[in-house]
Amino acid sequence: MEPSLTAIYCLSFLTAVVAFAFAAYLYLWVKRQKTVNETILNVSTLIKQGANTFMSREYKILALFAAGLAVIIFVLLPSPIWSGGGIGNHLAMAIAYIAGTVLSAVAGKIGVLVATLSNARTAEAAGKGIRPAFLLGFRGGAVMGLLVVGCSLFGVAAVLWIAGDASILLGFSFGASSLALFAKAGGGIFTKTADVSADLTGKVELGIPEDDPRNPAVIADNVGDNVGDVAGMGADLFDSNVAAMASALVIAQSLGGGVNTAMVLVYAILGLLASIIGIATARLGKRGNPTRALNSSTYATTAVFLVLTAAATLLIDGFSWRIWGASATGLFIGVVIGLTTDYFTDDNKPIVRRVAHASGTGPAFTILSGTAYGFISALPAMTGIAASALVAYKLCAPIGDGYAIFGISMAAVGMLSIVGMIISNDAYGPIVDNARGLAEMGGLGEDTIRIADELDSAGNTVKAVTKGFSIGAAGLTVIPLLGAFMSEVNAAITKAGGTELVTGFDLMNPTVFFGILIGAAIPAVFSAMLILGVDKNAQRMVAEIHRQFNTILGLREGTAKPEYDKCIDIATTGALRELLPAGGMVILVTVVVGFVGGPAAIGGFLMGNIVSGLLLSLFMSNAGGLWDNSKKYIEAGSEGDKGSEAHKSAVIGDTVGDPYKDTAGPSINTQITVVSLVASLLAPLFVAFSFFG
Amino acid sequence: MEPSLTAIYCLSFLTAVVAFAFAAYLYLWVKRQKTVNETILNVSTLIKQGANTFMSREYKILALFAAGLAVIIFVLLPSPIWSGGGIGNHLAMAIAYIAGTVLSAVAGKIGVLVATLSNARTAEAAGKGIRPAFLLGFRGGAVMGLLVVGCSLFGVAAVLWIAGDASILLGFSFGASSLALFAKAGGGIFTKTADVSADLTGKVELGIPEDDPRNPAVIADNVGDNVGDVAGMGADLFDSNVAAMASALVIAQSLGGGVNTAMVLVYAILGLLASIIGIATARLGKRGNPTRALNSSTYATTAVFLVLTAAATLLIDGFSWRIWGASATGLFIGVVIGLTTDYFTDDNKPIVRRVAHASGTGPAFTILSGTAYGFISALPAMTGIAASALVAYKLCAPIGDGYAIFGISMAAVGMLSIVGMIISNDAYGPIVDNARGLAEMGGLGEDTIRIADELDSAGNTVKAVTKGFSIGAAGLTVIPLLGAFMSEVNAAITKAGGTELVTGFDLMNPTVFFGILIGAAIPAVFSAMLILGVDKNAQRMVAEIHRQFNTILGLREGTAKPEYDKCIDIATTGALRELLPAGGMVILVTVVVGFVGGPAAIGGFLMGNIVSGLLLSLFMSNAGGLWDNSKKYIEAGSEGDKGSEAHKSAVIGDTVGDPYKDTAGPSINTQITVVSLVASLLAPLFVAFSFFG
Prior knowledge:
2 copies of one chain form a homodimer. Chain A is mainly α.
């Protein structure tokens, strides 16, 4: 049967509502679990308040930024307002943009709310055993996963249904990107400022344990886990997911819509259903290994998705096996990237152990070997992305003109189909990390802390897998994205009465080459600015911690309380202050390149940006994870245990890796979307004027 | 007047001979200076012998490799031998290839010979004052500079004259590349193995000074300076210079030869003349600052070159100001890249001081801030390369069809025109570095060591400038190189009876994208393998040093002599053993990509490779220089001087930076040439068969 689009819209809303309902159920389930420990409750409240403080300040600045951008979008998109045409599309674009920011913000806000509820309950549950604690941590995280995917499906379907024009989705996608920039890069600076400062002063200078309540930065550190990993990663994947769907839907529309549009939405619906099933069935086995539990839910979700989409292809007339193959290829490569990441960052595998062993020779060897393996780890992922784009293209090219690119965009949709499950796993990480801290602060005893540690270590591993998915999807969307940019440019050329349309971006054109080179440098500079931002901000916080230890009597002895809020305040203000120049630099360079070299330079710029962005983000995420787990591996009793030379070196490696893996590496994705946003917004201006273009 | 090509060939040979004669004069001048100190003479002989050992072993392996490759070249180039055509061109190609390796090897061999003569003499001259010592170090280095440029001009002119076909230059250029791979990457592993091991055991474990004769690795360390920096950098710049001239001459031929061919050779002749003048007039002023002396000779050479080429343009009918402008742009950007590098790595500038200051907070901050500034330092250089390619292209496009690309290749020729001066400055570095060591070992006293230190520090700074030139030129040759690859491919297509010629490499073609992504990962993996190679090899050498200290009685007290040759042997064997897998990986991946995706994938592969290669080599070279000089800055009395926490951190930074800046970073250039070599060699096979192509 040929699917009815209206039915599919309704089905999209229905599935989103099911996801929301399931999220609400899990939320209430988490809330019903009891907390009795007074200290834990107090600390958990402090964490919640801290997270709220950061998020409201962030959202306030973001609201200003978004309001300004909404006006610019209103004026410039879908084409400059002075070039004529109705005002309706302009309004739709601006509203879609605002909807994108609002939905992402709401999902993030609720996700953090649940995460900060779950942490204390998970800590106490760990007192009863690993299985209930696992379930609490996982279900708390799953609320975020369900909300993000529910919101994206709901939003995309609603915008498309109301506007009746897929290009309006561009606005919605931009909204998601703006929020991701603040949430991911800002949250990343916040979390690492607090983490690095807490470690430096606590563990290194004073020799007190991690999460010791005497450390003034300890609450900020726990807040950071929530705002950086829960809200930040959620916003990032919301953004990737919306971008992948939007670009597939735009291409589907250019292919005549109908069954193509239906296919994109059906795949998204089935992905969400598969995630719901995966989440509902996730349990820790009797001889529970939490990493295995998380991974097997992921594989289960993958299998369910493949079966459901195969069934849909069989049922629905016109659905093509080629498209199914492209989407399966994307999902398969996502899993492969995850496994590679796991190979490079899991402490049961040789690489982590080699770096731990090299640490015995001194910190320089920790850094050198970690850097080297981080570089090497980029190859399989980049090859996988490259190969899946090629396979999807070749698979779908025979369907007809334009289907080859549609195939690539469906590979991206496929890779992100199980994102609900992925986010659930990812948000589980900070919840159990927090729980570990709360168990320590609440004095729940060694056994409970050990269980919390075990849950935490699994969180680190699956986090690496998540990053693989978000980076991989960014790589796959580049060709559809260049295609979208090219249509923008050609529309502008046609409007201006030109006839020489752009048909591609030739590597041998020096204007394209100009763009590529500069584009490739930008992720490096952006990462550098974020790293320096963390560095500067951590110095401020370290000074504040020193001040507190010097002026608050009894703090060292534990008889007086530190001023936690001062540290939270420094992290908050600093994160936003350091983020803006980095974001501004990216926007400025894009504008300059566009006005110097015109659309051809921007085409090259986007490609250079994504290629070096992929390389650097894979390198930094994996090297960071590798160092973190090498340290943990030594702390678990290898290479001389805590206090050995190897451990000291590993701690240095971990500190270097912190901003790599949690600030710079994962923010590159959002940097890439900012570039494409600015490029698309200003395409008509670049066409109208450029120095060398 | 229209220039006669024969006259210009003669002029090329004459200029080369003048350069050789001047080199011989300088060699004899250096040799005439007396050495009296027994210890210094002995040690210097050990260094010379060690360098000879390494170079003969290296040349032996290289000879096998080159012989094999010569056969492959004979069979496959200019087109597969089975496709018909005379055997003459095949023979010419193979002979040109062998000539390229031989000339480069001879220049390297003599350069190292003079450098190892000059080091002892410079050390003793430092006893008489900084001015004579400077002159000795500089003139010793200048022999290498003159030889390299003389050989490249002589070789290129001879091949072109004899063969009468510029495409045979490809063979000569391949010869230069093969040697550069061994000399630069192999020498780089050698030098850093020795340096890192000597530092770790000597300075860190035993607390004995750098260059203490009790350290078994000390001679290997000094040998490394010569084989890595003198021979390696010389071979690298020989390769870049030949590649730039060859690609310009191939394009000139495609534009009808005549005045275009003449122009390339005249620019090269005038560049060599300008370098001779610059070298002859280099002196240290009364209130001598050696860095300033080296830099002002470079600027003088630049000015002389610009004036001479302007005069030639005026005199010779048909020479175009547009071409002059393109070449001047290239040279200008080379100087700008040098200045940028200087800004990021000079300890009189803020960046080095900031990193030194951050080191006070711990080694993690040394690494993080150095990494961040290293990333940032890539932006101006990449922008400069991009801008000069664009400007040269736009300047020369109006001359006629095909001149735009010729303009870019002339920008590369312009950038490398003063390479004789550049190499002289660069080879000065290891000579004075050795001299410093010899002054220490010969017990020449604090004053002499201080002078040697001052000379050494200038060497570090100008080294950074050299790297800017060689990296910049690699960036500028990419478009001509892609053009050359495309002609190869089209020739093969035509031969095979095909009609669909390749006209460019479109970014939106997933096959090109496939190549770009994988190409971009290769420099990272190659660097990683070299870094791990240094790491492994250093562990072997550290074990050997420990063995010597444990088993040789009286070594610690200085009454017994260490077995220096054992360390040299480890460095030699290890360097060649670690180099081969890295080189093999690059070749293998290129072949696989070619057979999977065909010529389109290889086009993308070359671009991705160069873009990420530029980024990583700029990052690693500059971060390494930055860390080295931060350490030196602290040792000169800042941030708590030697023994402070900041110093300890800075030493760790320096150790990380060593393989970055002297092994991996500068070897990426040669990796890029290996890729293009393999791509061109196998182009006909990729055209004939590829899975997805």
